[in-house]
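chain below, 112 aa
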Amino acid sequence: MFNQSRLIIEDVSPQINGGLFPVKRIINEIVHIKATVICDGHDVLQAGVLYKHKSQKKWTEVRMNPGNNDEWTAAFNVLKQGETEFYIEGWVDYALNWQQGIIKKINNIFQF
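prediction:
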């Protein structure tokens, strides 16, 4: 059970040749990020995009929004000239799973 990866992130865009070449944007242009984020089971997922300019040390996070067919989207604005890096992370939200499970149980108890 150790080193078990339950979450898969694939079909990330924008990218060119699987990330071999950088995607080009100009200052104040919005970068629209899309990815497919899936997990085994029916757990509640969360995802976010972390980005920063190459000269910065601190990453900025933007939460991704779920869409149709496991597609998640987010966007950020390019603020400086030069290379901006981004990566996507996802996780199973155990607290939200617990909350939704309790709500389902309560609704089943009080259903007439």
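The chain is about 15% helix and 45% strand. Strands lie at 7-13, 30-39, 45-53, 60-63, 65-66, 71-77, 84-92.
thats it, cya
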